[in-house]
Amino acid sequence: MSRKAKLSKGYANFLTRFNNKYKETYVKDKITTTIIVPEKKGIHFDRVGKYKTEEMYKTTDAFGSDFRVYLLESSKVPAHDPHKEDMKYNQEHASIAKKADGEYRITFDDLKSFASSVEAQGTHKWLAIAIETGEDSVVGMKFNGYTLTADDAAESRSVGLTNGDIIYWMKADRGSTTAILTNGDKETYLSFII
Which of 6, 74, 95, 130 has the largest CB neighbor count within 10 A? Predict the structure, then answer.
């Protein structure tokens, strides 16, 4: 088991840079960063009282046995996107393997950079990761603190997934990343290790 801890940015950065047992998420505010910490360290934080931690569930406990993570097939990238050929190339030149519950290793050859359809997200080496939750709908779930809406379900359907699936566009050139996924009162994390 792991725990979620909200720490000062400096301390969180120190822990995640020098020990791979601590995983940085992109849940941040002006002075804190949320990271994933080992169970024993989380209990220590709680006892000392400086930081409060919360339990993280295994993906199967939060979503059931139908939970699955994989790279989107290259044939399913959005046909209308002006960067569809670069998208297909990236999907065909990467692979993903499950290491442990909630942890996935991504390997790739040289990927192509292209601009996101959301201008503010910039140009990166994007990879489309499919997350099958096993639920009927993702509406109301949270992904890194963002509440998923009908628009997110529609985006999943646009690439051949269902209303209960998430399409996560990962910036592969940013290195490893960890996302927090919330289903009702249960939170789990997904680490993508590059």
Answer: 130
